[in-house]
Amino acid sequence: YLEQFSDNVEKKGGHVFFAQTDEQAVNYIKKIAKEKKAHRIVKSKSMVTTEINLDKALLSLPETSLMETDLAEFILQEDNWDEPTHIVFPTLHKNRDQIQKVFNKLGYSGSNDPEEMAKFARKYLREYFMQADLGITGCNFAIADNGMINLVTNEGNADLTMAIPKTQIVVMGMERIVPSLKEAEVLDNML
Fold first, then answer.
1. I want to staple 91 with a disulfide (CB 3.0 to 4.6 A). Which of 72, 85, 111, 124 is the partner?
2. Phi first, then psi: what are they for 177, rounded to 5°?
3. Span 48-78, pLDDT tens digits
4. Rg (CA), the chain
5. What pLDDT is attached to residue 40?
6. Residue 33 and residue 169 in contact, taking contact as beta carbons nearer than 8 Å
7. Hey, is 5 helix, strand or coil?
8. pLDDT tens digit sequence for 116-157
9. DSSP letter (8 states) at residue 84
10. Which ranges of the chain does DSSP label H, i.e. alpha helix?
């Protein structure tokens, strides 16, 4: 299935790199960022990039900025790369007053109302998206028989991460492969 997926991605103009180690994956992604002269990178929905410590590696590139675009990850990044406390709710340890203080550093002058703060974050991130030249996501499933990826989101930021930058990188473990859309649909429903 991995070979079939790779062949189908390449038929659509993409490229698949099989990394044997974290270091190989990170070095390949850094190489692509350098080749594409990517200075503004957006990321979304990828636990694998966290596991391989990709953020630190990309931030070591000269004149490169990186923006985590999932709302909770964005909050943690802007709070001096604070560590997540929960896999599903990374900012569970922060209350609305703490988040307001993080946003105040970015120019926010509103209240601690979650809806108002979310609108601020959306506007702030949207400006960054529009200037991004490289997008990085994970995927829930990679579909072998058509070379597509399936990514389930609830914020819309992954859609922008995939659609706006000229270059997209999807980072995944091989356990994400499914034979066809039929299996992806079953797994999506379970998810």
1. 72
2. -75, 135
3. 998 999 999 999 999 999 999 999 999 999 9
4. 17
5. 97
6. no
7. helix
8. 999 999 999 999 999 999 999 999 999 999 999 999 888 889
9. P
10. 2-11, 22-35, 47-51, 54-59, 71-78, 96-104, 114-131, 157-163, 181-190
Nearest to 112 by CA among 100, 103, 124, 122: 100
* Residues 17-47 pLDDT 10s: 999 999 999 999 999 999 999 999 999 988 8
pTM of the predicted protein model: 0.92
The helix/strand count (H/E) of the chain reads as 9, 7
**41: which 2 tokens?**
């990178």
Retrieve residue 143's tokens. 């579909």
Q: Work out the angle between the directed axes of helices 71-78 and 96-104 (0-180°, nearest 10).
A: 60
- The enclosing H or E element of 18 equals none
The structure tokens listed for 154 are 């609830």
The secondary structure of residue 64, as a DSSP letter, is -
3-state SS, residue 169: strand
C-alpha of 189 from chain center: 22
